[in-house]
Amino acid sequence: MDIIKVEHLCYDYVATDEEGKIIEKNTALSDVNLTVPEGQFLAVLGHNGCGKSTLAKHFNAILTPTEGKVFVDGIDTSDEDRLFDIRQTVGMVFQNPDNQLVATIVEEDVAFAPENLGVPPKEIRERVDDALKQVDMYEFREHAPHQLSGGQKQRIAIAGIIAMRPRCIVMDEPTAMLDPKGRREVMKTIKHLNRDQGITVVLITHYMEEAAQADRVVVMDKGKVLMDDVPRKIFARAKELRAVGLDVPQVTELCVMLEENGVDISREIIFEDECAKAISQLPLKSRTAVIPEKKHAEEKENSDIIAKLENLTYKYSIGTPFEKTAVNNVDLSIAKGEFVGIIGHTGSGKSTLIQHFNGLIKPTEGTVYVDGKNIWGKDVNIRDIRFKVGIVFQYSEHQLFEETVAKDIAYGPRNMGLSEEEIKKRVNAAAESMGITHLLEKSPFELSGGQQRRCALAGVLAMEPDVLILDEPAAGLDPKGRDKILGLIKQYHVQSGRTILLVSHSMEDIVRFATKVLVMNKGSVFCYDETDKVFERSSELTDIGLDVPQITRLSRKMKELGIDIGEDIYTTQRAAERLLTLIKGQNK
Prior knowledge:
By secondary structure, the protein is of the alpha/beta class.
Protein backbone atom coordinates (compact mmCIF):
# COMPACT_ATOMS: atom_id res chain seq x y z
CA MET A 1 0.00 0.00 0.00
CA ASP A 2 1.24 3.49 -0.87
CA ILE A 3 1.16 5.95 2.03
CA ILE A 4 2.04 8.83 -0.32
CA LYS A 5 1.02 9.11 -3.95
CA VAL A 6 1.95 12.03 -6.20
CA GLU A 7 0.26 12.43 -9.61
CA HIS A 8 1.43 14.98 -12.19
CA LEU A 9 2.34 17.46 -9.45
CA CYS A 10 3.19 21.01 -10.51
CA TYR A 11 3.82 23.87 -8.12
CA ASP A 12 4.49 27.54 -8.81
CA TYR A 13 5.68 30.15 -6.35
CA VAL A 14 3.97 33.41 -7.34
CA ALA A 15 4.40 37.04 -6.41
CA THR A 16 1.37 39.35 -6.67
CA ASP A 17 0.79 43.08 -6.60
CA GLU A 18 -1.62 44.85 -4.25
CA GLU A 19 -4.56 43.96 -6.49
CA GLY A 20 -3.66 40.26 -6.47
CA LYS A 21 -2.35 40.27 -10.02
CA ILE A 22 0.54 37.85 -10.64
CA ILE A 23 3.74 39.80 -11.37
CA GLU A 24 6.21 36.94 -11.11
CA LYS A 25 5.97 33.14 -11.29
CA ASN A 26 8.65 30.59 -10.45
CA THR A 27 7.96 26.95 -11.27
CA ALA A 28 9.44 24.79 -8.50
CA LEU A 29 7.90 21.41 -9.45
CA SER A 30 6.93 20.18 -12.90
CA ASP A 31 4.93 17.01 -13.61
CA VAL A 32 6.25 14.99 -10.68
CA ASN A 33 4.93 11.43 -10.36
CA LEU A 34 5.96 9.44 -7.30
CA THR A 35 4.68 6.77 -4.93
CA VAL A 36 6.04 5.96 -1.48
CA PRO A 37 5.03 2.51 -0.22
CA GLU A 38 4.21 2.24 3.47
CA GLY A 39 7.27 1.18 5.48
CA GLN A 40 9.84 2.33 2.92
CA PHE A 41 12.96 4.36 3.70
CA LEU A 42 13.25 6.83 0.82
CA ALA A 43 16.14 9.28 0.41
CA VAL A 44 15.70 12.35 -1.79
CA LEU A 45 18.78 14.01 -3.29
CA GLY A 46 19.23 17.12 -5.39
CA HIS A 47 21.10 20.40 -5.57
CA ASN A 48 19.86 23.48 -3.71
CA GLY A 49 16.82 24.86 -5.52
CA CYS A 50 15.90 21.62 -7.31
CA GLY A 51 12.51 21.36 -5.60
CA LYS A 52 13.23 18.80 -2.82
CA SER A 53 11.86 20.87 0.05
CA THR A 54 8.89 22.05 -1.98
CA LEU A 55 8.02 18.42 -2.72
CA ALA A 56 8.41 17.47 0.95
CA LYS A 57 6.01 20.24 2.03
CA HIS A 58 3.33 18.69 -0.18
CA PHE A 59 3.57 15.43 1.75
CA ASN A 60 1.82 16.90 4.79
CA ALA A 61 -0.17 19.63 3.04
CA ILE A 62 1.95 22.61 4.07
CA LEU A 63 1.72 23.32 0.34
CA THR A 64 -1.00 22.14 -2.05
CA PRO A 65 -0.52 21.58 -5.79
CA THR A 66 -0.86 24.27 -8.42
CA GLU A 67 -1.72 21.36 -10.71
CA GLY A 68 -1.97 17.61 -10.12
CA LYS A 69 -2.76 15.66 -6.96
CA VAL A 70 -1.04 14.46 -3.79
CA PHE A 71 -2.65 11.74 -1.66
CA VAL A 72 -1.65 10.80 1.91
CA ASP A 73 -3.11 7.47 2.98
CA GLY A 74 -5.69 7.97 0.25
CA ILE A 75 -6.65 11.49 1.40
CA ASP A 76 -6.37 14.33 -1.13
CA THR A 77 -4.09 16.94 0.50
CA SER A 78 -6.16 19.76 -1.00
CA ASP A 79 -9.11 18.66 1.17
CA GLU A 80 -8.89 21.28 3.94
CA ASP A 81 -11.35 19.37 6.11
CA ARG A 82 -8.84 16.49 6.39
CA LEU A 83 -5.70 18.49 7.26
CA PHE A 84 -5.68 17.16 10.84
CA ASP A 85 -5.71 13.56 9.59
CA ILE A 86 -2.98 14.26 7.05
CA ARG A 87 -0.65 15.93 9.55
CA GLN A 88 -1.24 13.26 12.15
CA THR A 89 -0.22 10.70 9.54
CA VAL A 90 2.83 12.57 8.23
CA GLY A 91 5.17 14.41 10.60
CA MET A 92 7.72 16.93 9.32
CA VAL A 93 11.19 17.83 10.63
CA PHE A 94 12.77 20.92 9.08
CA GLN A 95 16.38 21.94 8.55
CA ASN A 96 16.39 24.80 11.06
CA PRO A 97 15.15 23.62 14.47
CA ASP A 98 14.58 27.19 15.70
CA ASN A 99 11.56 27.31 13.40
CA GLN A 100 9.97 24.37 15.24
CA LEU A 101 10.70 24.87 18.94
CA VAL A 102 7.81 26.57 20.76
CA ALA A 103 8.18 25.94 24.52
CA THR A 104 10.55 27.24 27.20
CA ILE A 105 11.45 23.76 28.53
CA VAL A 106 12.64 20.85 26.39
CA GLU A 107 10.18 18.23 27.68
CA GLU A 108 7.29 20.68 27.29
CA ASP A 109 8.29 21.24 23.67
CA VAL A 110 8.33 17.51 22.94
CA ALA A 111 4.94 17.18 24.68
CA PHE A 112 3.37 20.00 22.66
CA ALA A 113 2.16 17.93 19.69
CA PRO A 114 0.85 14.92 21.69
CA GLU A 115 -1.09 17.32 23.92
CA ASN A 116 -2.69 18.87 20.83
CA LEU A 117 -3.55 15.40 19.57
CA GLY A 118 -5.47 14.73 22.81
CA VAL A 119 -3.13 12.02 24.09
CA PRO A 120 -3.77 11.15 27.79
CA PRO A 121 -1.25 12.76 30.23
CA LYS A 122 0.26 9.45 31.38
CA GLU A 123 0.93 8.38 27.79
CA ILE A 124 2.34 11.83 26.97
CA ARG A 125 4.89 11.37 29.75
CA GLU A 126 5.87 7.97 28.33
CA ARG A 127 6.08 9.30 24.78
CA VAL A 128 8.21 12.30 25.78
CA ASP A 129 10.69 10.21 27.78
CA ASP A 130 10.92 7.60 25.02
CA ALA A 131 11.42 10.19 22.27
CA LEU A 132 14.13 12.05 24.19
CA LYS A 133 15.98 8.81 24.91
CA GLN A 134 15.85 7.86 21.23
CA VAL A 135 17.68 11.06 20.27
CA ASP A 136 20.00 10.92 23.30
CA MET A 137 18.64 14.13 24.85
CA TYR A 138 16.89 12.75 27.93
CA GLU A 139 19.38 14.38 30.32
CA PHE A 140 18.45 17.78 28.85
CA ARG A 141 14.71 17.33 29.40
CA GLU A 142 14.50 20.20 31.94
CA HIS A 143 16.76 22.60 30.02
CA ALA A 144 15.60 25.64 28.07
CA PRO A 145 15.89 25.05 24.29
CA HIS A 146 17.61 28.42 23.76
CA GLN A 147 20.50 27.21 25.95
CA LEU A 148 21.22 24.29 23.61
CA SER A 149 23.52 24.17 20.59
CA GLY A 150 22.09 24.02 17.07
CA GLY A 151 22.62 20.27 16.86
CA GLN A 152 20.98 19.65 20.22
CA LYS A 153 17.97 21.74 19.18
CA GLN A 154 17.58 19.63 16.06
CA ARG A 155 17.46 16.46 18.09
CA ILE A 156 14.72 18.00 20.25
CA ALA A 157 12.76 18.88 17.09
CA ILE A 158 13.05 15.27 15.90
CA ALA A 159 11.94 14.02 19.32
CA GLY A 160 8.85 16.25 19.07
CA ILE A 161 7.82 14.49 15.86
CA ILE A 162 8.66 11.01 17.19
CA ALA A 163 6.35 11.70 20.16
CA MET A 164 3.43 12.15 17.74
CA ARG A 165 3.84 8.50 16.64
CA PRO A 166 3.14 9.32 12.97
CA ARG A 167 3.03 6.60 10.30
CA CYS A 168 5.41 8.62 8.11
CA ILE A 169 8.16 11.09 9.01
CA VAL A 170 9.52 13.51 6.41
CA MET A 171 12.91 14.95 7.36
CA ASP A 172 14.34 17.92 5.47
CA GLU A 173 18.13 17.92 6.09
CA PRO A 174 17.72 16.97 9.78
CA THR A 175 21.42 16.23 10.29
CA ALA A 176 22.86 19.27 8.49
CA MET A 177 23.93 20.95 11.74
CA LEU A 178 24.91 17.84 13.73
CA ASP A 179 28.34 16.50 14.63
CA PRO A 180 29.33 13.03 13.34
CA LYS A 181 28.15 11.31 16.50
CA GLY A 182 24.85 13.18 16.34
CA ARG A 183 24.39 12.19 12.70
CA ARG A 184 25.07 8.55 13.54
CA GLU A 185 22.56 8.68 16.40
CA VAL A 186 19.89 10.28 14.23
CA MET A 187 20.48 7.76 11.43
CA LYS A 188 20.30 4.95 13.99
CA THR A 189 17.01 6.41 15.21
CA ILE A 190 15.68 6.72 11.66
CA LYS A 191 16.53 3.09 10.88
CA HIS A 192 15.03 1.96 14.19
CA LEU A 193 11.78 3.82 13.50
CA ASN A 194 11.68 2.47 9.95
CA ARG A 195 12.74 -1.15 10.43
CA ASP A 196 11.52 -1.92 13.94
CA GLN A 197 8.39 0.20 14.10
CA GLY A 198 7.47 0.19 10.41
CA ILE A 199 7.35 3.97 10.11
CA THR A 200 7.80 5.28 6.58
CA VAL A 201 10.75 7.68 6.32
CA VAL A 202 11.41 10.28 3.64
CA LEU A 203 14.87 11.75 4.18
CA ILE A 204 16.11 14.78 2.25
CA THR A 205 19.87 14.92 2.64
CA HIS A 206 23.13 16.12 1.12
CA TYR A 207 25.11 13.38 2.90
CA MET A 208 25.67 10.59 0.42
CA GLU A 209 26.52 8.09 3.17
CA GLU A 210 23.05 8.68 4.65
CA ALA A 211 21.33 8.18 1.31
CA ALA A 212 23.30 4.94 0.79
CA GLN A 213 21.49 3.46 3.82
CA ALA A 214 18.02 4.01 2.31
CA ASP A 215 15.91 1.41 0.51
CA ARG A 216 15.50 3.73 -2.45
CA VAL A 217 16.95 7.02 -3.73
CA VAL A 218 15.17 9.66 -5.80
CA VAL A 219 17.31 12.34 -7.46
CA MET A 220 15.67 15.63 -8.41
CA ASP A 221 16.80 18.31 -10.84
CA LYS A 222 15.01 21.43 -12.05
CA GLY A 223 11.76 20.46 -10.34
CA LYS A 224 11.59 16.99 -11.86
CA VAL A 225 12.50 13.44 -10.87
CA LEU A 226 15.75 12.68 -12.70
CA MET A 227 16.58 9.25 -11.22
CA ASP A 228 14.68 6.74 -9.10
CA ASP A 229 16.35 3.47 -8.12
CA VAL A 230 18.10 1.55 -5.35
CA PRO A 231 21.20 3.32 -3.91
CA ARG A 232 23.73 1.06 -5.67
CA LYS A 233 22.31 1.83 -9.10
CA ILE A 234 22.03 5.54 -8.38
CA PHE A 235 25.59 6.03 -7.08
CA ALA A 236 27.07 3.97 -9.92
CA ARG A 237 26.03 6.91 -12.13
CA ALA A 238 28.69 9.15 -10.57
CA LYS A 239 29.31 11.27 -13.67
CA GLU A 240 25.60 12.05 -14.08
CA LEU A 241 25.26 12.92 -10.39
CA ARG A 242 28.20 15.32 -10.54
CA ALA A 243 26.64 16.97 -13.58
CA VAL A 244 23.71 18.01 -11.37
CA GLY A 245 25.86 19.20 -8.46
CA LEU A 246 25.81 16.02 -6.38
CA ASP A 247 28.41 13.55 -5.15
CA VAL A 248 28.82 9.86 -4.29
CA PRO A 249 30.11 8.05 -1.16
CA GLN A 250 33.92 8.11 -0.96
CA VAL A 251 34.20 4.32 -1.38
CA THR A 252 32.11 4.54 -4.57
CA GLU A 253 34.29 7.39 -5.80
CA LEU A 254 37.37 5.25 -5.15
CA CYS A 255 35.94 2.33 -7.16
CA VAL A 256 35.11 4.69 -10.03
CA MET A 257 38.69 6.03 -9.98
CA LEU A 258 40.13 2.51 -10.00
CA GLU A 259 37.83 1.40 -12.81
CA GLU A 260 38.78 4.44 -14.90
CA ASN A 261 42.40 3.32 -14.48
CA GLY A 262 41.67 -0.11 -15.92
CA VAL A 263 40.94 -2.00 -12.67
CA ASP A 264 38.19 -4.62 -12.86
CA ILE A 265 36.00 -3.53 -9.93
CA SER A 266 32.28 -2.80 -9.61
CA ARG A 267 30.97 0.75 -9.41
CA GLU A 268 27.97 -0.48 -7.41
CA ILE A 269 29.84 -0.47 -4.10
CA ILE A 270 28.57 1.90 -1.43
CA PHE A 271 29.79 0.53 1.93
CA GLU A 272 33.27 0.19 3.47
CA ASP A 273 33.14 -3.55 4.25
CA GLU A 274 32.19 -4.60 0.74
CA CYS A 275 34.74 -2.22 -0.78
CA ALA A 276 37.56 -3.64 1.39
CA LYS A 277 36.52 -7.16 0.44
CA ALA A 278 36.38 -6.34 -3.29
CA ILE A 279 39.85 -4.77 -3.19
CA SER A 280 41.26 -7.76 -1.27
CA GLN A 281 40.13 -10.02 -4.12
CA LEU A 282 42.00 -8.03 -6.77
CA PRO A 283 45.21 -9.53 -8.22
CA LEU A 284 47.62 -7.31 -6.26
CA LYS A 285 51.33 -7.47 -7.09
CA SER A 286 52.07 -6.32 -3.54
CA ARG A 287 49.97 -5.96 -0.40
CA THR A 288 51.98 -3.22 1.32
CA ALA A 289 52.49 0.22 -0.17
CA VAL A 290 55.70 2.17 0.21
CA ILE A 291 54.67 5.21 2.22
CA PRO A 292 56.46 8.48 1.44
CA GLU A 293 58.23 9.98 4.42
CA LYS A 294 56.03 12.53 6.12
CA LYS A 295 57.15 16.11 5.94
CA HIS A 296 55.68 17.91 8.89
CA ALA A 297 55.87 21.66 8.82
CA GLU A 298 58.68 23.06 10.89
CA GLU A 299 57.66 25.18 13.83
CA LYS A 300 58.59 28.81 13.24
CA GLU A 301 60.42 30.00 16.30
CA ASN A 302 59.43 33.63 15.85
CA SER A 303 56.14 33.25 14.02
CA ASP A 304 53.80 36.18 14.57
CA ILE A 305 50.82 35.38 16.78
CA ILE A 306 47.66 37.09 15.56
CA ALA A 307 45.30 35.80 18.27
CA LYS A 308 45.89 34.29 21.69
CA LEU A 309 43.75 32.97 24.54
CA GLU A 310 45.15 32.64 28.06
CA ASN A 311 43.35 30.63 30.77
CA LEU A 312 40.05 31.38 29.05
CA THR A 313 36.88 30.25 30.85
CA TYR A 314 33.31 31.14 30.01
CA LYS A 315 30.18 30.24 31.99
CA TYR A 316 26.57 30.68 30.96
CA SER A 317 23.77 31.59 33.41
CA ILE A 318 26.10 32.20 36.38
CA GLY A 319 24.33 31.91 39.71
CA THR A 320 21.30 30.08 38.32
CA PRO A 321 20.38 26.37 38.37
CA PHE A 322 21.35 26.32 34.68
CA GLU A 323 24.93 27.52 35.20
CA LYS A 324 27.18 25.79 32.71
CA THR A 325 30.89 26.00 31.90
CA ALA A 326 31.03 26.17 28.09
CA VAL A 327 34.77 26.85 27.76
CA ASN A 328 37.19 25.78 30.47
CA ASN A 329 40.72 27.10 30.99
CA VAL A 330 41.73 27.26 27.32
CA ASP A 331 45.22 28.32 26.24
CA LEU A 332 45.64 28.80 22.51
CA SER A 333 47.86 30.72 20.08
CA ILE A 334 46.98 31.26 16.41
CA ALA A 335 49.80 32.28 14.05
CA LYS A 336 49.31 34.84 11.28
CA GLY A 337 48.36 33.30 7.95
CA GLU A 338 47.26 29.97 9.45
CA PHE A 339 44.22 28.04 8.13
CA VAL A 340 42.86 26.39 11.27
CA GLY A 341 40.03 23.86 11.27
CA ILE A 342 38.01 23.68 14.48
CA ILE A 343 36.15 20.46 15.24
CA GLY A 344 34.39 18.99 18.24
CA HIS A 345 31.19 17.29 19.26
CA THR A 346 27.96 19.27 19.50
CA GLY A 347 28.14 21.37 22.66
CA SER A 348 31.96 21.08 22.92
CA GLY A 349 32.36 24.87 23.08
CA LYS A 350 33.41 25.64 19.49
CA SER A 351 30.92 28.43 18.82
CA THR A 352 31.37 29.92 22.28
CA LEU A 353 35.15 29.89 21.85
CA ILE A 354 35.22 31.70 18.50
CA GLN A 355 32.92 34.48 19.72
CA HIS A 356 35.63 35.51 22.19
CA PHE A 357 38.06 36.45 19.42
CA ASN A 358 36.15 39.60 18.43
CA GLY A 359 34.57 40.38 21.76
CA LEU A 360 31.03 39.19 21.13
CA ILE A 361 31.45 37.35 24.42
CA LYS A 362 33.49 38.60 27.36
CA PRO A 363 35.34 35.82 29.22
CA THR A 364 34.30 34.90 32.73
CA GLU A 365 37.99 34.40 33.42
CA GLY A 366 41.16 34.73 31.35
CA THR A 367 42.44 37.04 28.65
CA VAL A 368 41.94 37.41 24.88
CA TYR A 369 44.71 38.98 22.81
CA VAL A 370 44.47 40.14 19.19
CA ASP A 371 47.65 41.49 17.63
CA GLY A 372 49.26 41.44 21.05
CA LYS A 373 46.57 43.62 22.70
CA ASN A 374 44.20 42.56 25.45
CA ILE A 375 40.90 43.22 23.67
CA TRP A 376 39.20 44.12 26.94
CA GLY A 377 42.03 46.42 28.04
CA LYS A 378 41.26 50.04 28.91
CA ASP A 379 43.22 51.40 25.96
CA VAL A 380 41.51 49.16 23.38
CA ASN A 381 38.34 50.05 21.45
CA ILE A 382 36.37 46.81 21.02
CA ARG A 383 34.85 48.26 17.84
CA ASP A 384 38.30 48.26 16.23
CA ILE A 385 38.76 44.61 17.23
CA ARG A 386 35.53 43.67 15.47
CA PHE A 387 36.80 45.21 12.24
CA LYS A 388 40.03 43.26 12.65
CA VAL A 389 38.32 39.91 13.39
CA GLY A 390 35.32 39.07 11.20
CA ILE A 391 32.82 36.29 11.92
CA VAL A 392 30.43 34.64 9.49
CA PHE A 393 27.83 32.78 11.53
CA GLN A 394 26.24 29.38 11.10
CA TYR A 395 23.09 30.71 9.40
CA SER A 396 24.93 33.49 7.60
CA GLU A 397 21.92 34.31 5.41
CA HIS A 398 20.37 35.77 8.58
CA GLN A 399 23.06 38.49 8.43
CA LEU A 400 21.55 39.91 5.22
CA PHE A 401 19.14 42.84 5.45
CA GLU A 402 19.81 45.50 2.80
CA GLU A 403 17.89 46.24 -0.43
CA THR A 404 20.67 45.08 -2.72
CA VAL A 405 23.71 42.83 -2.50
CA ALA A 406 25.99 45.83 -3.12
CA LYS A 407 24.48 47.77 -0.21
CA ASP A 408 24.73 44.73 2.07
CA ILE A 409 28.41 44.25 1.30
CA ALA A 410 29.01 48.00 1.73
CA TYR A 411 27.43 48.13 5.20
CA GLY A 412 30.57 47.12 7.14
CA PRO A 413 33.05 49.33 5.24
CA ARG A 414 30.65 52.27 5.56
CA ASN A 415 30.54 51.81 9.33
CA MET A 416 34.32 51.88 9.30
CA GLY A 417 34.10 55.48 8.07
CA LEU A 418 35.76 54.80 4.72
CA SER A 419 35.37 57.06 1.70
CA GLU A 420 32.76 56.22 -0.94
CA GLU A 421 35.55 55.51 -3.42
CA GLU A 422 37.20 53.04 -1.03
CA ILE A 423 33.85 51.45 -0.18
CA LYS A 424 33.09 50.87 -3.87
CA LYS A 425 36.54 49.39 -4.38
CA ARG A 426 36.12 46.99 -1.45
CA VAL A 427 32.61 45.96 -2.48
CA ASN A 428 33.78 45.06 -5.96
CA ALA A 429 36.85 43.21 -4.66
CA ALA A 430 34.84 41.21 -2.11
CA ALA A 431 32.11 40.40 -4.65
CA GLU A 432 34.74 39.28 -7.15
CA SER A 433 36.44 37.03 -4.59
CA MET A 434 33.09 35.33 -3.93
CA GLY A 435 32.04 35.17 -7.58
CA ILE A 436 28.92 37.33 -7.18
CA THR A 437 29.74 40.52 -9.14
CA HIS A 438 26.78 39.77 -11.45
CA LEU A 439 24.42 39.83 -8.46
CA LEU A 440 25.35 43.22 -6.96
CA GLU A 441 22.10 44.97 -7.94
CA LYS A 442 19.84 42.09 -6.96
CA SER A 443 18.04 41.80 -3.64
CA PRO A 444 19.89 39.37 -1.36
CA PHE A 445 16.53 37.74 -0.63
CA GLU A 446 16.13 36.72 -4.28
CA LEU A 447 19.30 34.63 -4.17
CA SER A 448 19.72 30.89 -3.67
CA GLY A 449 21.01 29.58 -0.35
CA GLY A 450 24.55 29.21 -1.65
CA GLN A 451 24.54 32.70 -3.17
CA GLN A 452 23.26 34.18 0.09
CA ARG A 453 26.12 32.54 1.97
CA ARG A 454 28.62 34.05 -0.46
CA CYS A 455 26.95 37.46 -0.14
CA ALA A 456 27.18 37.35 3.66
CA LEU A 457 30.80 36.26 3.44
CA ALA A 458 31.60 39.07 1.00
CA GLY A 459 30.15 41.55 3.50
CA VAL A 460 32.71 40.43 6.07
CA LEU A 461 35.58 40.24 3.55
CA ALA A 462 34.91 43.83 2.48
CA MET A 463 36.08 44.97 5.92
CA GLU A 464 39.39 43.24 5.15
CA PRO A 465 39.71 41.58 8.57
CA ASP A 466 43.07 40.16 9.61
CA VAL A 467 41.24 37.09 10.96
CA LEU A 468 38.22 35.53 9.24
CA ILE A 469 36.16 33.10 11.34
CA LEU A 470 33.58 30.87 9.66
CA ASP A 471 31.07 28.84 11.68
CA GLU A 472 29.81 25.97 9.49
CA PRO A 473 29.73 28.07 6.28
CA ALA A 474 28.76 25.11 4.07
CA ALA A 475 26.10 23.51 6.29
CA GLY A 476 22.95 22.70 4.34
CA LEU A 477 24.53 23.33 0.94
CA ASP A 478 24.61 20.72 -1.79
CA PRO A 479 28.04 19.24 -2.67
CA LYS A 480 28.56 21.66 -5.56
CA GLY A 481 27.64 24.68 -3.42
CA ARG A 482 29.81 23.38 -0.57
CA ASP A 483 32.84 22.91 -2.81
CA LYS A 484 32.26 26.32 -4.39
CA ILE A 485 32.18 28.31 -1.16
CA LEU A 486 35.02 26.39 0.52
CA GLY A 487 37.12 26.64 -2.64
CA LEU A 488 36.59 30.41 -2.71
CA ILE A 489 37.57 30.65 0.98
CA LYS A 490 40.74 28.66 0.32
CA GLN A 491 41.53 30.83 -2.70
CA TYR A 492 41.03 33.96 -0.59
CA HIS A 493 43.35 32.54 2.06
CA VAL A 494 46.10 31.80 -0.47
CA GLN A 495 45.83 35.16 -2.21
CA SER A 496 45.43 37.37 0.87
CA GLY A 497 47.60 35.48 3.34
CA ARG A 498 45.08 36.24 6.08
CA THR A 499 44.25 33.96 8.97
CA ILE A 500 41.23 31.65 8.61
CA LEU A 501 39.42 29.74 11.38
CA LEU A 502 36.91 27.23 9.97
CA VAL A 503 34.42 25.49 12.27
CA SER A 504 32.99 22.38 10.65
CA HIS A 505 31.41 19.01 11.41
CA SER A 506 32.68 17.67 8.08
CA MET A 507 35.95 15.84 8.60
CA GLU A 508 36.33 15.59 4.81
CA ASP A 509 36.25 19.40 4.48
CA ILE A 510 38.69 19.90 7.36
CA VAL A 511 41.15 17.44 5.83
CA ARG A 512 40.96 19.14 2.43
CA PHE A 513 41.45 22.72 3.55
CA ALA A 514 42.97 23.11 7.02
CA THR A 515 46.70 23.09 7.72
CA LYS A 516 46.16 22.80 11.48
CA VAL A 517 43.25 21.44 13.48
CA LEU A 518 41.93 22.43 16.90
CA VAL A 519 39.87 19.71 18.56
CA MET A 520 37.50 20.78 21.34
CA ASN A 521 36.04 18.34 23.85
CA LYS A 522 33.70 19.25 26.71
CA GLY A 523 34.83 22.87 26.68
CA SER A 524 38.56 22.14 26.71
CA VAL A 525 41.28 21.79 24.06
CA PHE A 526 41.69 18.09 23.29
CA CYS A 527 44.53 18.73 20.85
CA TYR A 528 45.88 21.38 18.49
CA ASP A 529 48.29 20.23 15.80
CA GLU A 530 48.92 19.73 12.10
CA THR A 531 46.03 18.09 10.27
CA ASP A 532 47.83 14.79 9.59
CA LYS A 533 48.97 14.47 13.20
CA VAL A 534 45.46 15.09 14.52
CA PHE A 535 43.81 12.49 12.30
CA GLU A 536 46.45 9.93 13.17
CA ARG A 537 44.61 9.84 16.51
CA SER A 538 41.44 8.55 14.87
CA SER A 539 40.40 6.13 17.60
CA GLU A 540 40.65 8.91 20.19
CA LEU A 541 38.59 11.22 17.96
CA THR A 542 35.91 8.56 17.70
CA ASP A 543 35.89 8.18 21.48
CA ILE A 544 35.00 11.87 21.90
CA GLY A 545 32.12 11.76 19.40
CA LEU A 546 33.98 12.72 16.22
CA ASP A 547 34.82 10.71 13.16
CA VAL A 548 37.31 10.33 10.35
CA PRO A 549 36.57 10.40 6.60
CA GLN A 550 34.93 7.26 5.20
CA ILE A 551 38.02 6.61 3.07
CA THR A 552 40.14 6.52 6.25
CA ARG A 553 37.84 3.92 7.78
CA LEU A 554 38.13 1.92 4.57
CA SER A 555 41.95 1.93 4.73
CA ARG A 556 41.77 0.44 8.23
CA LYS A 557 39.37 -2.28 7.15
CA MET A 558 41.75 -3.09 4.29
CA LYS A 559 44.63 -3.35 6.76
CA GLU A 560 42.62 -5.90 8.73
CA LEU A 561 42.49 -7.92 5.50
CA GLY A 562 46.26 -7.66 5.04
CA ILE A 563 46.44 -4.71 2.62
CA ASP A 564 48.39 -1.74 3.99
CA ILE A 565 48.23 1.54 2.08
CA GLY A 566 49.24 3.67 5.07
CA GLU A 567 47.72 5.40 8.07
CA ASP A 568 47.48 8.77 6.30
CA ILE A 569 44.55 8.05 3.97
CA TYR A 570 42.16 11.00 4.21
CA THR A 571 41.27 11.56 0.52
CA THR A 572 40.09 9.24 -2.24
CA GLN A 573 42.83 10.59 -4.50
CA ARG A 574 45.58 9.42 -2.12
CA ALA A 575 43.88 6.05 -1.60
CA ALA A 576 43.59 5.50 -5.36
CA GLU A 577 47.23 6.44 -5.97
CA ARG A 578 48.49 4.03 -3.31
CA LEU A 579 46.24 1.18 -4.48
CA LEU A 580 47.26 1.61 -8.10
CA THR A 581 50.92 1.14 -7.12
CA LEU A 582 49.96 -2.22 -5.58
CA ILE A 583 47.76 -3.27 -8.50
CA LYS A 584 50.14 -2.24 -11.29
CA GLY A 585 53.35 -3.21 -9.54
CA GLN A 586 54.80 0.30 -9.46
CA ASN A 587 55.44 0.17 -5.73
CA LYS A 588 59.01 1.42 -5.41
